[in-house]
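Why does residue order matter? Because the sequence determines the fold. Keep that principle in mind as you read this record.
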Amino acid sequence: MSNNREWKKTKKIYFSDELNDDFYEFEKIKRPELKPNYNYVHHNIFRRILDGFVYYIIAKPILGLVSFLHGVRYKNKKNLKVLHGKGAFIYANHIGLSDVYKFQSLVFWKKVNIIGYSDTTAIPIASLVVKAFGYLPIGMDATNLRGLRDGCEFLVKKRKEYVLIYPEAHIWPFYTKIRPFKNVSFVYPAESMSPVVPAVTVFRKVWYSKKPKQTIIFGRVIFPQEGLTVNENRDYLRDECYKEMVRIASSVEQPQYIEYIRVEPKEK
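Structure:
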């Protein structure tokens, strides 16, 4: 499989496993395990005021400007009107480290929280900042798994905020298709009976840059079905979200900045 220097030079990436291959753009930080009973939601009023100041007054305008300067566009935001002030889970394709701020910029007034790996908790100062940004790290401890589910439900149902999830889990830069993803992350909206918003980043050519620019397209909002069990709704939401994301990605003619080539996996 090609290393990062090779793909940046040749614009080719060789892959064998769409579910597990990862083309992270920087050296990985050692992923620590969270302490049991990690605090996912802050209820202290002073901490909430501080976090709100960092998120809405400092970060949000800056991220909006960065998105604008990087040529990010948004399409079909009208699809979000059916939420009528409800919180929701956003599911998006994962094509770069900058994916997060594009949703936290000026698209949503309500806070967009992000579920991700625990990498950022390895750096003490960064850990404090990303908490203010609504970062929700995944922990393998049973108390943290339950805490993450309860925290997501509280943020979406009580505070009417958004939770952003990348079901593909791994970064594939400039990839123009939707990779297969598992149903495990859809247990959150299934348990809380919350709506799902499919969102796909597609690429477009521009005259002023050799690299294509990004357009985020929002799909139709998908609601859990009454009368289904949690597991049935989990599978239903996953299947409908995947179909909608594939439909969006295939409806746009996208330039291929990096060529992805499938190879046979090496025998262990």
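The radius of gyration is 19 Å.
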